[in-house]
């Protein structure tokens, strides 16, 4: 049963203002338009909401008809995490590929072109970039979403990405504060814990965020992680020592603080989304992200009424809610002014970066393929951030260059023998993703290489394992353009 709150009072409007909900469908539902009229200031978009640039533009125009300054947000990192191109794979490589090239001007150009495309469709807040230092190679959720494992590299590319994105008039939301890189647990499923000293945090995790703040990032997203050196009791999203004392106080940040998705189990599994949202705002968060999983009017009303009830009970200071709502409105006003900055199109930026990111081992003894091969994709379970709806691999691009290419997806203990049987006499191309994290995948690759030493291997995750195969290509990500860059080498295009 929900608390009854007056729909016209300032308190209720502020409670709606701090929410960033999602919805289903490719047009705005009536309930969402109604809430925009009542004070809702933000909407989050996901792959399910997008079919084409034209449809997305029509959708954002529909939202702005109801509220001209609505803050339309998206989780568009490029690379493996794409919403604009969830059905085809991204035209932009992700952070790990950009870090592998280590050219900050290229990173700036890629982020600017991505921002230009977002702005052209009416999306003006991007929940990116990831500023996490991928210091744990077994990290199940960051991986190629990070620029790399070197703190200084991550810091300079985070800053370049922020300035590139914002030069196109799209607000950057640097994540996941105070750093999700040194985790072995996915916060979509449980609460990760980072047990390092305060000195390590300052030198490693926080350095990229300092760079992002210096670059003027308009928003920062909190992480659902427990960092005992900062707060032994509550995850960062719900922690006043992390959000207010550290981010606002010590680091001097005055922009918008956005939570990671509140339905993620790291928070919802312990606190519930209502109480978790109240604790997050009380801790210093300004915008509550929800809608990746719970995307309906009931969720919005539950969170609105929980915030109103918390203010009326004294659990949440009214001035804290008002301050959070003010920061949301200020960012909405910045994105609504129409400024798009230096946005000359650079349509080849993504492919140019993907080609430069490719690491090739064995090219000196490799003769490009001239006949259609069999592509065996060894497919791990996708994490929730990436999703399993986005295609990946090299088969589609090889089919374009070598018509008649066949492909299959394999997993588990019999993956290697199954792939050999399916390939028949065709030349084999084996595609892996984070071989070092999946023993079955390493076993399958060994089976292939033992039987067919001329197998070409394409690693589309973090290239942590030693290169194997007649030709080994490390793409540093599984975006469509990364697959194209690899296919060009395989086919000698």
Q: What do you see in this structure?
A:
With 493 residues, the protein is an alpha/beta fold. It is globular, with a radius of gyration of 23 Å. The protein has 17 helices and 14 strands. It starts with 9 loop residues before the first helix and ends with a helix. Residues 1-8 have low confidence and may be disordered. It has a 6-stranded parallel β-sheet with strand order 2-3-4-5-6-7. Strands 9-14-13-12-10-11 form a 6-stranded mixed β-sheet, with helices on one face. Helix 16 (439-451) links the parallel strand 12 (428-432) and strand 13 (456-459).
Q: Characteristics of this structure?
A:
six-stranded mixed sheet, disordered N terminus, 493 residues, alpha/beta, six-stranded parallel sheet
Structural topology:
Layout: H1 10-17, E1 19-20, H2 30-38, E2 42-45, H3 53-66, E3 71-74, H4 95-101, H5 104-120, E4 125-126, H6 151-167, E5 171-177, H7 198-214, E6 219-222, H8 240-250, E7 256-258, H9 265-271, H10 273-283, E8 288-289, H11 297-313, H12 318-335, H13 349-357, E9 359-361, E10 374-378, H14 395-401, E11 406-410, H15 415-423, E12 428-432, H16 439-451, E13 456-459, E14 471-474, H17 480-491
Parallel strand pairs: 1-8, 2-3, 3-4, 4-5, 5-6, 6-7, 10-11, 10-12, 12-13, 13-14
Antiparallel strand pairs: 9-14
Helix pairs in contact: 1-11, 1-12, 4-13, 5-6, 6-7, 10-11, 13-17, 14-17, 15-16
């Amino acid at each position: 049963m929900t608390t009854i709150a007056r729909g016209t009072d300032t308190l209720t409007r502020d409670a709606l203002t701090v929410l960033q909900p999602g919805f289903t469908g490719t047009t705005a539902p009536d309930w969402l338009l109604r809430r925009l009229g009542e004070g809702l200031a933000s909407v989050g978009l996901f792959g399910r909401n997008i079919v084409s640039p034209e449809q997305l533009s029509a959708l954002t125009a529909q939202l702005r008809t109801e509220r001209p300054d609505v803050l339309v947000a998206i989780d568009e990192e490029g690379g493996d995490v794409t919403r604009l191109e969830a059905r085809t794979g991204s035209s932009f490589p992700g952070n790990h590929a950009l870090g592998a090239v280590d050219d900050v001007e290229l990173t700036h150009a890629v982020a600017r072109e991505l921002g230009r495309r977002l702005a052209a469709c009416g999306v003006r807040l991007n929940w990116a970039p990831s500023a996490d230092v991928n210091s744990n190679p077994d990290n199940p959720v960051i991986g190629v979403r990070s620029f790399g494992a070197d703190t200084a590299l991550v810091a300079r590319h985070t800053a370049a990405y922020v300035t590139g994105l914002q030069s196109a008039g799209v607000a950057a939301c640097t994540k996941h504060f105070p750093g999700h890189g040194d985790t072995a647990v996915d916060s979509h499923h449980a609460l990760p814990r980072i047990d390092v000293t305060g000195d390590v945090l300052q030198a490693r995790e926080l350095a990229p965020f300092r760079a992002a703040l210096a670059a003027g990032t308009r928003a920062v997203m909190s992480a659902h992680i427990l960092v005992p050196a900062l707060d032994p009791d509550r995850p960062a999203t719900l922690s006043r020592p992390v959000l207010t004392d550290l981010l606002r106080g010590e680091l001097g940040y005055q922009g918008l603080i956005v939570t990671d998705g509140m339905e993620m189990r790291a928070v919802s599994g312990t606190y519930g989304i209502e109480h978790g949202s109240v604790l997050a705002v009380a801790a210093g968060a300004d915008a509550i992200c929800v809608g990746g999983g719970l995307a309906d009017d009931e969720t919005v009303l539950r969170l609105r009424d929980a915030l109103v009830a918390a203010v009326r009970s004294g659990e949440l200071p009214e001035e804290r809610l008002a301050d959070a709502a003010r920061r949301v409105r200020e960012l909405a006003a910045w994105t609504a002014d129409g400024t798009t900055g230096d946005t000359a199109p650079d349509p080849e930026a993504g492919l140019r970066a993907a080609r430069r990111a490719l690491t090739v081992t064995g090219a000196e003894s490799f003769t490009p393929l001239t006949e259609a091969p069999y592509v065996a994709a060894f497919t791990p379970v996708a994490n929730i951030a990436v999703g399993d709806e986005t295609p990946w691999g090299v088969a589609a691009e090889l089919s374009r260059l070598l018509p008649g290419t066949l492909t299959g997806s394999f997993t588990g203990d019999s993956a290697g023998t199954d792939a050999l049987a399916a390939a028949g006499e065709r030349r084999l191309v084996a595609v892996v993703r984070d071989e070092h994290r999946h023993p079955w995948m390493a076993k399958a690759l060994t089976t292939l290489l033992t039987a067919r030493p001329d197998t070409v291997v394409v690693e589309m995750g973090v290239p942590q394992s030693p290169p194997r195969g007649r030709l080994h290509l490390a793409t540093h990500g599984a975006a469509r353009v990364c697959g194209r860059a690899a296919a060009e080498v395989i086919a000698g295009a």
